[in-house]
Specification:
362 residues, alpha+beta, Heat Shock Protein 90, five-stranded mixed β-sheet, two-stranded antiparallel ribbon, 13% strand
Length: 362
């Protein structure tokens, strides 16, 4: 008899041998059901053991396949990284060529723009002068009419006074003069920018020549004024310098890169200070650009002149500015010194010889 059935019979009837025939028959049927259930259970257990073994073998096979696949994926990923690095090198070389071409053509472009702007500026400036003459004449006539107001009939005078009040004549007379003055100042500003743009480019001056570095600095400041005016104030501390033998347009590009980098070093939401200093030691002059921006981490100081090295966000720089500046200063037989402190700012000092070596060495 099944142990579970025997336990229950003892619990409710005592000794199973004393059971009535009916209960004994029922117990026998139940016992057969228990025995069949045990047989089914044993069969299920054997089936489960077999399935578990098969699943284990399948799982081991899958693990092996996954390991192989992972190795293949890692190899493909490594190959992808290597290909991306090669593509990046090619892109960098391509971008460097493009940037060099852009820098080479900037002078011609600037001169062309300056020429195109100069003509309409001349028209506007001439027209403003004529308009001022006409306005002075009209105001003189108006003053003569106003002098006759006392001789007008009261009714007509009242009409005139009403019209003058409606158009705010007194305000108009003052404002139209102010508007002309502002327009004239705007035209003078544009003319100065155009002249500075031409001075910046020196498109017709590609040869070595004697140049005033202060004039180049001022012209460049005017060109990059819009880049700096919202970020920092500029202080100029110029000392007396002789004219320097150089390629003016290339030095102006260096000055521009230094000023723009200084402006970009100023934290957003703060107004910084950019100081430009000049001086001379022996037969060399120096130009210094100091900012009170975020500073350069020490680990980056040795890399800032490397081509394409930049810490600016994507779209904010090519990483060529300081590299090109370094190359131009070296071409002038000079060198660049840099000092920086995190949170306090950075100072670049450019050293240049006053005179260049013989033509064969240039």
């Amino acid at each position: 008899m099944h142990r579970l059935l025997e336990r229950q019979l003892k619990r409710f009837f005592g000794d199973p041998a004393t059971l009535s025939p009916q209960v004994a028959a029922f117990a026998g049927a139940v016992d057969e059901a228990y025995q069949a259930a045990d047989a089914d259970r044993l069969m299920i257990e054997r089936s489960l053991d077999l399935m578990s073994k098969e699943l284990g073998e399948s799982n081991a096979g899958l693990h092996s396949q996954l390991a192989e696949r992972r190795q293949i994926e890692e190899a493909l990923l490594q190959e992808k990284h290597e290909q991306e690095a090669l593509v990046k090198k090619l892109e960098d070389a391509h971008n460097q060529l493009l940037q060099s071409e852009k820098m080479a053509s900037i002078g011609q472009l600037a001169a062309g723009v300056a020429h195109e702007i100069n003509n309409p500026i001349g028209y506007v400036n001439s027209n403003l002068g004529t308009l001022r003459t006409y306005l002075d004449q009209l105001l003189a006539v108006l003053a003569a009419y106003e002098a006759l107001e006392s001789t007008c009939e009261p009714a007509k005078l009242a009409q005139v006074m009403t019209v003058k009040k409606q158009v705010e004549l007194d305000f108009l007379k003052e404002d139209v003069i102010a508007l002309l003055n502002e327009s004239g100042e705007g035209i003078r500003r544009v003319k100065q920018i155009v002249q500075d743009l031409k001075d910046f480019s020196h498109v017709d001056e590609a040869e070595w020549q004697q140049a005033d570095l202060h004039h180049g600095l001022d012209s460049t400041l005017n060109v990059v004024h819009n880049e700096i005016k919202y970020k920092a104030d500029v202080v100029k501390e110029y000392n007396d310098l002789p004219n320097v033998e150089c390629l003016p347009s290339q030095l102006n590009q260096v000055f521009m890169n230094m000023l723009v980098n200084a402006a970009h070093a100023i934290d957003e939401g703060t107004r910084g200070l950019i100081t430009i200093r000049t001086g001379m030691v022996g037969d060399q002059v120096w130009v210094e650009f100091a900012d009170n921006g975020k500073g350069i981490p020490p680990e980056n100081l040795t890399r800032i002149f490397d081509p394409f090295f930049t810490t600016k966000p994507v779209g904010k720089g090519t990483g060529l500015g300081l590299s090109l500046a370094y190359g131009i200063i070296e071409k002038h037989r000079g060198h660049i010194e840099v000092k920086s402190e995190i949170g306090k700012g950075t100072t670049f000092r450019l050293w240049l010889p006053v005179r260049q070596p013989d033509e064969e060495m240039k």
